[in-house]
Amino acid sequence: xxxxxxxxxxxxxxxxxxxxxxxxxxxxxxxxxxxxxxxxxxxxxxxxxxxxxxxxxxxxxxxxxxxxxxxxxxxxxxxxxxxxxxxxxxxxxxxxxxxxxxxxxxxxxxxxxxxxxxxxxxxxxxxxxxxxxxxxxxxxxxxxxxxxxxxxxxxxxxxxxxxxxxxxxxxxxxxxxxxxxxxxxxxxxxxxxxxxxxxxxxxxxxxxxxxxxxxxxxxxxxxxxxxxxxxxxxxxxxxxxxxxxxxxxxxxxxxxxxxxxxxxxxxxxxxxxxxxxxxxxxxxxxxxxxxxxxxxxxxxxxxxxxxxxxxxxxxxxxxxxxxxxxxxxxxxx
Length: 333
Fold this sequence. Notes:
Elements: H1 20-44, H2 56-81, H3 87-111, H4 121-132, H5 140-156, H6 185-205, H7 207-212, H8 221-228, H9 230-251, H10 259-271, H11 277-293, H12 297-301, H13 307-327
């Protein structure tokens, strides 16, 4: 999401030119985001294998998109308020993003209560924009160091202490909660700080002035328009894409698959991120058979997120892994 990238005049200081390149990059990121969401919609309606967008290159793609947005939030925050915080403009933009984030939570809670968005990209942008103000006047190197620490935090600060729902937004719980868009403070605030640090380096090195002097051709106008209206694009594109796929599903429905088939496909895709196909086929069959034999398959399918059930699934996974390894020669992770 964008903040204004040009600061208002401060006393006799001339207003700097808007850096169109930032709008272009933001526009490209928005189109990339739309392509990811469209693929997610296809998966949701059964036109692709379950779990496709949650693993492998699609997962990396999604993280690159989110990182780009948040990095640009930091860049724009510094360009707009680095010399002096323009409180009226900041409060207006913050309120718009915060209200949009609350609306997203409300709508998704009604539509998809099992995976509603309680702290997604808009929530992160609102909080990160507020916290980022404290770093606008700090040295660029110090900001970059803090950014690295924030990004690395989930690797060494995860704790069951943060497993309480009230602390999920922090991002340091032992296991990630279920949500269709989960972008917690750690590690994602690090991308915003990296953007602030990069903008500071660019400003002192003269790179910002050189970028501001660039005049892209007419080809860039659609990207610039999208980039300058990023919040509106974000709020509108997914309902339109989701609605289009929903309508298409009534004309040409996707093949209907049983819950068991869906589970096996999703399990296979997830497993093959670490193990070979032969192992994963046996392992997923073991998981399904065990869940069905103990009558907990429905509990898993309905998205039970209680700590007790999560621990039970972990135990089952360990058991099936050991059993499959004993049957599969040379099974190595």
